[in-house]
Amino acid sequence: MTIISNHKCVRICQNRTCRKQGAVDVLAAFEALSIPGVKIMASGCLGHCGNGPMVLVLPDTVWYSGVLPSSVTLIVARHLLDGRKEGRGDGGKEGRSDGVMEGRSDGGKEGRSDGVKE
Ligand code: FES
């Protein structure tokens, strides 16, 4: 039997480098919003240190890097509510001035998403 879930999970890295870059405030911004069918989780290192705060949306495997607390509402509105996947697969630095990184959703160099801190 195959179980298909429409639920999404947003993982926000809370490891050392991302925390220095403001990940605590990004996590708080996601948690402050009530998003039906979306689980918000603090995560260990996602393997894109230095590009943070890093956010990974599953099961889409869409990455957002350099996320600002002020851009969380935009990510939620566009990706989680509207279904527009504008994140990035490789966690690259180039992006928009609103803190939302554009790019691919193919998973790129996927990092640790198992919650294990290094
Ligand atoms: S510390 Fe956040 S991705 Fe490594």
Tell me about this structure.
It is a single chain. By secondary structure, the chain is of the alpha+beta class. 21% of the residues lie in helices and 16% in strands. A four-stranded mixed sheet has the order 2-1-3-4, with helices on one face. The relative contact order is 0.21. The protein binds FE2/S2 (inorganic) cluster (FES). FE2/S2 (inorganic) cluster is lined by residues 13, 15-18, 45-49, 52, 54.
What would the keywords be for this entry?
single chain; 3 helices; disordered C terminus; binds FE2/S2 (inorganic) cluster; 4 strands; Glutaredoxin; 118 residues; alpha+beta; four-stranded mixed beta sheet
Secondary structure layout plus pairing:
Elements (H helix, E strand, L loop, with lengths): L7 E6 L2 H5 L2 H10 L5 E6 L11 E4 L3 E3 L7 H10 L37
The structure holds FE2/S2 (inorganic) cluster.
Number of separate helices = 3
Molecules bound to protein: FE2/S2 (inorganic) cluster
The chain-level mean pLDDT equals 79
- Major sheet: size, sense and barrel closure? 4 strands, mixed
Major sheet: order of its strands?
2-1-3-4
CATH architecture term: 3-Layer(aba) Sandwich
What's the end-to-end separation, in Å?
36 Å
The count of DSSP E runs of length 2 or more, i.e. the number of strands, is 4
Derived from helix and strand composition plus strand pairing, the structural class reads alpha+beta
Kindly report the name of the CATH homologous superfamily: Glutaredoxin
Silhouette: globular
How much β-strand is present in the residues?
15-25%
What's the SSE pattern? Answer: EHHEEEH
The CATH class is Alpha Beta
CATH topology term: Glutaredoxin
Helix content: 10-25%
Question: If you compute it from the alpha carbons, what radius of gyration comes out, rounded to the nearest whole angstrom?
Answer: 13 Å
Low-confidence stretches: 90-99, 102-118
Number of domains: 1
